[in-house]
Each structure stands twice: as structure tokens, then as C-alpha cells.
Design goal:
By secondary structure, the chain is mainly alpha-helical. The protein is built from 10 helices and no strands. Helix 1 packs antiparallel against helix 5 and helix 6 crosses helix 7.
């Protein structure tokens, strides 16, 4: 008997827990003396200095800190996007999409900055920059959600619109490596979402690899999970 895939959470719990922990931690670190606070954030940053020294754990811990308490609009958007992903895919897959975008974008940005560092000279502060937060994972999850929408027209419009918004900051004169990281995370998330959609059964062909499986109805799109 073929085991049934795990069903996604009906009520997201991991997303509110994560966003709440980020906010509580931000208020806690904000109470530290300025020097101690910067040292703490820098120690958990995915900057060139840390990764070049082999502090690979920062690829995980950097997602647990933010520089300032989350503004209400951004906190609400983060909660909505992560909660939607958790509701649609379940905790493990949603967390995997977030982690893949966060870690993947961090490594690609690191590679680009490390290649650039010798050209900027020893006075460049970028290798020791504070680089923490949930934004890479947020952009990756948002891109994955857009790229996994079943309706082709909506999917194309949403994906193209997000990529256009991601490219715009990179083209301006005052761009930062974080802008490039956001675009990278968005592209990684879009690719991940496309892979998720490709692996889903369609209403015409049912579940792949299971002979005689029944097609999904429109309702099945909302309830089928992995």
C-alpha cells in the first residue's frame, strides 16, 4: 500500500512562532549597549570575514537575528508569506524553501563579495558588515509561492512582476550587496516553486508514478500536500 503524503498544516504555527521569536529577540538585543549589540549581530552575520574563517554556522544563526525590531508592515508581510507557505506545503517543505533561499543566496553573495574584496582594498568595511535577518528566506518563499500558482496566467504575471521589482534596486547607483541578495533569493525561490509545481499531480493525470490514480479535482489542489 502506497503511504499517503503528509498533509499541510491547517493552522500555521511555525510561522507565527518564528516571526514572534524574531521580534522578541530584536527588542532584547536593542536593550544591549550599542557596542555589544553590534558585536553580537556581527558574530552571527554571513559576511565575508565569518564565512572565510569557516564560521559556517552563521548560515543558520543569521536567520534568527534582525538589526532592528520588525516594522509592522514588514512583520505582517513576513508572517503572511511564511504562513501561506506553511499552510500550502506543510512545515518541513516551507522551512526547506526558506532555508534553501536563505543559505543559497548568502553563499552566492559571499562568493561575489569575496571575488570583489581584493579589488576594493584593505579599507573596505564590507567584509565585516552586519548581515543578518529573514529577508533572503522571505524573498525565496515569496518567489516559490508565485511560481507554484496553478493558473498559468496568474503564475506568469506574479513571477514576472516580482522579478522586475527585484531587479530594479540592483540597477540603481546606490545598490548594496543586500539588493543583489534579495534578487538572488527571489530567483532561487522561483526555481524551487517551479520544481514543486512540476512535481504536483495535475487534474488531467492524477498522481505521477501511481498507476490508476484518480485525477485531482479543483478542491484537491487546495488540500493535496507533500
Amino acid at each position: 500500500m502506497t503511504p499517503r503524503p503528509p498533509r499541510p498544516s491547517r493552522v500555521p504555527w511555525a510561522a507565527p512562532l518564528y516571526v514572534g521569536a524574531l521580534q522578541v529577540g530584536a527588542y532584547a538585543t536593542a536593550r544591549l549597549p550599542a557596542r555589544r549589540r553590534v558585536e553580537l549581530l556581527r558574530a552571527h552575520s554571513t559576511n565575508v570575514a565569518n564565512l572565510r574563517a569557516g564560521r559556517w554556522g552563521t548560515l543558520l544563526t543569521s536567520a534568527g537575528f534582525v538589526e532592528e525590531p520588525l516594522p509592522v508592515p514588514y512583520g505582517a508581510a513576513l508572517l503572511a508569506v511564511l504562513g501561506t507557505a506553511e499552510r500550502r506545503w506543510g512545515v518541513r517543505r516551507a522551512a526547506g524553501v526558506f532555508a534553501a533561499g536563505h543559505i543559497g543566496a548568502s553563499l552566492l553573495v559571499y562568493a561575489g563579495l569575496r571575488a570583489r574584496t581584493p579589488l576594493r582594498g584593505p579599507g573596505d568595511p564590507t567584509p565585516h558588515a552586519v548581515d543578518v535577518g529573514a529577508s533572503y528566506g522571505f524573498y525565496a518563499t515569496l518567489g516559490a509561492l508565485a511560481a507554484s500558482v496553478p493558473h498559468r496566467g496568474v503564475r506568469t504575471a506574479a513571477t514576472a512582476g516580482l522579478l522586475a521589482l527585484g531587479i530594479r534596486p540592483v540597477l540603481r547607483r546606490g545598490r548594496t550587496f543586500t539588493d543583489a541578495g534579495h534578487l538572488t533569493a527571489l530567483a532561487l525561490g522561483t526555481a524551487t516553486g517551479a520544481a514543486i509545481r512540476a512535481g504536483r499531480p495535475t487534474p488531467e493525470r492524477g498522481k505521477p508514478g501511481i498507476p490508476g490514480s484518480r485525477p485531482l479535482t479543483d478542491r484537491g489542489w487546495a488540500t493535496a500536500g507533500h
